[in-house]
Amino acid sequence: MDYKKILEETDALIHGHFLLSSGLHSDSYIQCAKALRFPWYAEELGYGISLKISAYNPDCIVSPAIGGIIIGYEVAKHLNIPFLFTEREDDGLMKFRRDFDPSTFKRVAIVEDVITTGKSTKEVIELLRKHGVSAICTASIANRGNLIEIEGLPIATLVELPLNNYKATECPLCKQGIPLVKPGTRKFVMGS
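The structure assignment produced for this chain is given below.
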């Protein structure tokens, strides 16, 4: 299966001048929600990730909201295991809500839509640790940060897309006067 083609055909891979939640600027953005809005693509992408992480034998999938919810659910469905998700509180910190309790699980896999810097995944890893749970691996539809591990955990990904990222002070798109767009859902905090 050509997973990059799915992203392109659904306009999930877009080009322009974007402010990422990491604070970096980029000439490209991956909006996996555009691909995941089609149940048949969500199912296919979830199945692909489930094949990549099944050898780790997870007993639960945890995803950060909002971007990871659909793909995490699909992976859990294919592996026939429970699915939990974290949510950001008003203070910006990840929390388990809805009476979700990860402490009963021993082999948790973290599934995201896109990994750039690994910040959300690191937050979920830390939250799981606070609940006495260790994650065994991470996974995503796309890895745009060229990362090979997060906090010592392997990353399984369907599409490697090392895209251009720039510090705001060094961004050639800013210097060209191209308008900056802030896509996504995470609130941007200067210095985060």
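Interim note for the steering committee: The beta strands are 13-19, 25-30, 60-64, 83-88, 94-96, 108-115, 135-143, 149-150, 153-160, 165-166. Confidence is low (pLDDT under 50) at residues 186-192.
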